[in-house]
Design goal:
The complex is a heterodimer of chains A (444) and B (493). With 444 residues, chain A is α/β, with parallel strands linked by helices. Chain A folds into 2 domains: 3-286, TIM Barrel (Alpha-Beta Barrel); 325-414, no CATH class. Chain A has helices spanning 3-12, 90-102, 119-136, 153-162, 175-181, 187-214, 249-263, 290-305, 310-313, 327-334, 348-351, 359-369, 376-381, 386-389, 402-406, 410-414, 432-441; strands at residues 49-50, 56-57, 59-63, 108-112, 142-146, 165-167, 236-242, 267-272, 341-342, 393-394. Chain B is of the alpha/beta class. Chain B folds into 4 domains: 2-123, no CATH class; 128-197, no CATH class; 207-258, no CATH class; 290-489, Uracil-DNA glycosylase-like domain (Uracil-DNA Glycosylase, subunit E, 3-Layer(aba) Sandwich). A 5-stranded mixed β-sheet of chain B has the order 3-4-5-6-7, covered by helices on one side. In chain B, strands 9-8-12-14-13 form a 5-stranded mixed β-sheet, sandwiched between helices. Chain B has a two-stranded parallel ribbon with strand order 1-2. Chain B is elongated and about 100 Å long. The chains are: A alpha/beta (444), B alpha/beta (493). At the A-B interface, α1, β1, β2, α2 and α6 of A face α4, β4, α5, α6 and α7 of B.
Chain lengths: 444, 493
């Protein structure tokens, strides 16, 4: 099989992993190694392209092989699937990464693998790619390695030494769901592996902190030998598949909150299950609406940056997110007694709870109000949607009516009916076929 | 009104602006000409500035200078006068906090320009595509060239990014305004060229890249607006992969309906029975009632007991924890130390007393002349009970187990006691003391050696080391630590 064909098969096999981030790692470049070094990273990531599914292409995201001894129903690579199999050599992945990088197609590599022979054998090959890139080619771009929780501690430790980020996918929010759809996976083992990775990352941070205190000046990270390189400096992340099982949003968000709090994950990615070729009979044929994935990301943001608890976002009487209203508006509508909020007096914690005000806008408002009172015209200048905020706020020149805030019509006025995605130019005229697709993709 | 002639770069504007500010020239009285404006509209009105008194000292805040460097790259003709007006308002008109007022029209405009430059620069780092042209025969360095069309004058601003990233390659980035070149030693700039002057090279890797692009795309989820928002159509003409977009989008619907028409694969149903070698088998221990395990403790090894404990759901704490944490130490230990419950670090490592309180305990034991490796160290409750922090980064805060939970977990502790049968027991804190000595026990009143305890030959009750961590006052902390060590010493003989 030629390399281009392998690339096609193993990219096809990798596309269901949503993560493509290349941000948040240590700052480094190759300016001090003019003859050999290649690459730089650190700071914000760069998305080098976008595909028509709206997702960015930042990393070369491929599988080492799509052969797999596991049999997870939602996965295109499960052992009982008919999909065509291929397998890269270590050198093929190394050279594809370097050649793609030199043409500025990518920020680096995101390498994962189907499990062949056993977890350690598989991980060793994945780690060998990273080792060659770092040590033989002095590659300073971004590397994200997918880790198999069943692999040994030693090999996971090595992965973290070469990678900027390592990740383990929990896939589903609890063991019952795994038992049904991914019988070879064990959530406790996964959590222990995540705990072990967090422990290594923190131990390594402490070590570097005391090291740099002892020896001044500190040695720049890029000159450090392998043993002293920071351990997975961009942290760890995970992914949950949405809609393949019947877990509700409360179960999903509780698991996210548990994972963020317990293992200090940088991100939990939510991937709406999408139909795959050669699907397993026990999976739903219809994908969940993409908007559910979107609402989960919004809720995730509220958890991490806005100080909401899971119970506030999805209370027991409404365990699923409202698909029509974003979760912040949902909370405001359920807690109207907390409003209106005075933009000139309220604390930051309350300002960020106003529907239509993001953390950045709130930062600006706090800055501005030190010098001058906030009026509606100021909000307009900051491009705040007045329609969204007016019922909930007080400014120097505006006080909403209690009646408006308590009105039954408020919810209806606040939600904008979803617009259909513009499919002009590219698609044949709307037919039954298109209707069928929309039903399956859940696209609004 | 006077015309000030400058070159089209930040330094030139800064030098001229500084002289004008020293003269306190009003922004309404100057016209900036960087040579790109059409016809010297104001040249006829040029007047010589009238110097009033000595030139004054002018200081501009650092964040303004940084902002101005970026805005200077903007194509908008008005940028020089806008920057000068802001500089004048800050330095002469004494509006020191001007840049904080994002609702001010000048400030809004200058930030909007800076944002456009940032975006333009970012898109340049993303969408420049190098094509390999050959290898330099003199030094074997690979040579690459790219054609790019930015919206603003950002080549000089962005070139260092490419220099630091692609240091080991020779490259040129050609644009209509300015071209940047790197040869491993020098970063140089030459005037811009037109697109037809740029070399039309083919690179075999572009085919691989296009293959990758079309196969990483998921046809089941079209989101064209999201794509266009981040990769505006104006860039498509220079991206090798963009020519595929129309075809991929059109075929997406067909691929989707084909997938649905094909339906599920009934012929190759899930083959759970034929599990290949190498698949890890997780022994799932049946969920046992801890009281039942305690009753059979005599016939079970400590290892078996811990295995049963791993799936315990008696109190529910472990559902939110990583794993239950059982004791650690020799099975025939003379001394057993019993704490409250595992904490954050104990939970992720599965080992008792290794977090901050554990370190304190280790130090205290050493000072008391006791060897931790000879002691069996465990907790009254095996799971970590916690709640999330609400503000800031999500972390776990210790949450004390209630009486019901302690009672439900107690059989595990009793099982450990039965297996280890220590001669001496040290109880750390209220939870451990109350679990074994009854709810009326008060550590503050009854601290020290307890006479005639039925649970071991000698029982010492003392505080939990985590309480020492909470003492703010340094001298009080030392006194309490001393008392803690003295208590530990009581278990020595």
């Amino acid at each position: 099989m030629d390399l281009q064909k392998k690339l096609e098969i193993l990219a096809d096999a990798a596309k269901y992993d949503a993560s493509c981030a290349s941000s948040g790692t240590t700052k480094r470049d190759s300016s001090n190694a003019p003859s050999t070094g290649l690459g730089s990273s650190g700071g914000a990531g760069i998305c080098h392209s976008y595909t028509p599914d709206g997702r960015c292409v930042s990393l070369l995201k491929i599988l080492m092989t799509n052969a797999c001894i596991y049999d997870c129903h939602y996965c295109i690579n499960r052992r009982s699937s008919d999909s065509q199999r291929a397998r890269f050599t270590v050198d093929e992945v190394v050279s594809l990464t370097l050649e793609f990088y030199k043409r500025n197609y990518i920020e680096g590599l995101f390498l994962s693998s189907g499990i062949i022979r056993d977890p350690d054998f598989t991980m060793e090959r994945v780690v060998e790619v990273a080792r060659k890139l770092r040590e033989d080619h002095d590659f300073r771009g971004y590397i994200h390695l997918k880790t198999i929780p069943e692999a040994s501690q030693e090999i996971i430790e090595q992965a973290g030494r070469y990678a900027d980020r390592i990740s383990i996918n929990v896939e589903l929010p609890n063991q019952e769901a795994l038992d049904k759809l991914a019988p070879e996976k064990n959530i406790e083992r996964t959590q222990q592996a995540m705990g072990g990775i967090r422990y290594k990352i923190e131990e390594d941070k402490d070590r570097r902190k005391t090291k740099s205190k002892q020896h001044a000046p500190p040695v720049p990270a890029k000159q450090l030998p392998q043993k002293l390189r920071p351990y997975s400096p961009a942290g760890q992340s995970t992914q949950m598949i949405i809609g393949a099982d019947d877990s509700n949003d409360q179960a999903i968000l509780q698991q996210s909150n548990r994972l963020y709090s317990s293992y200090q994950l940088r991100r939990v990615y939510y991937s709406a299950f999408s139909p795959i070729p050669d699907a397993s009979p026990i999976l739903p044929l219809k994908a969940p609406p993409l908007v559910r994935e979107h609402r989960l990301y919004q809720a995730d943001w509220l958890l991490r940056f806005y100080g909401y608890s899971v119970d506030e976002i999805v209370p027991h009487h409404a365990p699923d997110l409202d698909l029509e209203a974003d979760p912040k508006l949902g909370w405001a509508l359920r807690n109207r007694h907390a409003f209106p909020i005075d933009l000139n007096r309220a604390s930051k914690e309350w300002l960020v709870r106003v529907p239509g005000l993001g953390t950045r806008t709130v930062g600006r408002l706090l800055n501005i109000r030190r010098y001058t009172g906030i009026r509606l015209v100021d909000l307009q200048k900051l491009r705040v949607s007045l329609k969204k905020v007016l019922p909930f706020i007080i400014t120097s020149d505006h006080t909403p009516t209690r009646h408006g805030l308590d009105s039954d019509q408020l919810r209806a006025r606040m939600i904008t009916p979803a617009k259909p995605e513009q499919l002009e130019l590219f698609l044949p005229p709307v037919t039954d076929r298109l209707a069928k697709i929309c039903a399956v993709t859940g696209q609004l | 009104m006077q015309t000030i002639t400058i070159e089209r770069n930040f330094q030139s504007w800064r030098d001229a602006a500084r002289s004008q500010l020293q003269l306190a020239t009003s922004p309404d009285d100057v016209f900036w000409d960087d040579g790109t404006a059409e016809g010297g509209l104001f040249s006829a009105m040029e007047t010589v500035p009238i110097l009033v008194g000595e030139p004054r000292e002018v200081r501009l805040p650092r964040d303004f200078v940084d902002l101005a460097k970026w805005v200077a790259c903007h194509v908008d003709q008005d940028r020089w006068s806008l920057l000068y007006r802001i500089a004048w308002r800050i330095a002469i008109n004494d509006e020191r906090h001007l840049l904080n007022l994002e609702t001010d029209n000048d400030v809004r405009r200058v930030y909007a320009m800076a944002k456009e430059i940032r975006r333009d620069r970012h898109k340049m780092t993303a969408f420049v595509r190098f094509r390999k042209t050959g290898i330099n025969p003199e030094n074997d360095r690979e040579q690459f060239v790219a054609w790019f069309e930015p919206d603003n004058f950002i080549v000089e601003l962005t070139a260092p990014f490419f220099k630091n990233r692609f240091t080991s390659m020779d490259w040129s980035i050609l644009t209509p305004d300015c071209c940047a070149h790197w040869d491993g030693k020098n970063l140089s700039f030459t005037p811009g060229i037109s697109k037809h002057e740029a070399p039309q090279t083919e690179d075999a890797l572009d085919n691989y890249w296009r293959s990758y692009y079309s196969h990483i795309f998921n046809p089941a989820r079209l989101k064209l607006n999201a794509m266009r928002a981040e990769m505006p159509v104006k860039y498509w003409k220079n991206l090798p992969e963009a020519s595929l977009i129309a075809e991929l989008t059109k075929k997406a619907s067909l691929r989707m309906t084909d997938m649905i028409d094909a339906g599920v694969n009934e012929s190759r149903a899930h083959v759970r029975e034929k599990i290949p070698a190498g698949v890890p088998i997780f022994e799932t221990h049946e969920n046992r009632d801890p009281i039942e395990v305690l009753a059979q403790a005599d016939s079970l090894s400590l290892k078996e007991i811990v295995d049963f404990g791993s799936t315990c759901q008696a109190c529910g704490i472990c559902e939110n924890a990583t794993q239950p944490v059982f004791g650690e130490g020799p099975e025939d230990a003379d001394i057993m130390i019993i704490g409250e419950q595992p904490g954050d670090m104990e939970d992720i490592t599965g080992r008792p007393f290794i977090g901050p309180a554990g370190k304190l305990l280790d130090d205290a034991l050493e000072l008391a002349g006791l060897n931790r490796s000879k002691i069996y160290v465990t907790n009254s409750v095996k799971g970590f009970k916690w709640k999330s922090t609400q503000q800031g980064r999500k972390r776990r805060l210790h949450d004390t187990a209630n009486r019901g939970e302690v009672t439900k977990c107690k059989p595990w502790l009793l099982t450990e006691l039965l297996k280890v049968q220590p001669r001496k027991i040290i109880l750390l804190g209220a939870t451990a003391s109350k679990a074994l000595l009854g709810n009326e026990f008060k550590i503050t009143d009854q601290r020290g050696v307890l006479s005639n305890s039925p649970i071991a030959e000698k029982v010492v009750a003392t505080i939990h080391p985590s309480s020492l961590l909470r003492i703010q006052d340094e001298s009080a902390k030392q006194i309490e630590t001393g008392r803690f060590i003295s208590d530990l010493k009581l278990a020595k003989d």
